[in-house]
Design goal:
Blueprint (H helix, E strand, L loop, with lengths): L3 H46 L33 H14 L11 H11 L6 H6 L13
Keywords: Membrane, Transmembrane, Transmembrane helix
Organism: Fulvivirga marina
InterPro entries: PGBD-like_sf, PGBDSf
Length: 143
Amino acid sequence: MMTGKQIWIMAGVATGLTGIGLYMYYQDREKKKVVARQLAASLMQSVQSRPSKPITPKQTIVPAKPEFPKGDGFPLRLGSEGKRVERLQVWLMRNFGGVGTVNGKFDKTTEERLLRYLKTRELNEETYNKYRMEKPVYEQIIK
């Protein structure tokens, strides 16, 4: 059992160590502030010493966006929308888990899950029917 004197000594040591740690923290913080101020000052000097050039607009080339199918006709792929895509998303979540929303839009997340679990980027009608994705959830085949 520790005596009262030993407890006071331990408390003093702990307080001293805490004080030293805080002192070192604030010293380091102050050094970082000084370095940051010096860096900002040198950047301002370099910006001010450069001759200014007029900014001219550059011609930007916008790449053509690929055409994605609308609706839920087969094959289901990136850009497809509709009830069949919604059923696909439910099937993927039920059989392979994961988080997300069932929104009826074949987006990048749906494509990644389909690629990971069925090893394809688009879903054809044969596979859709094989797993009975058009059926209610309780009648679907689990892979």
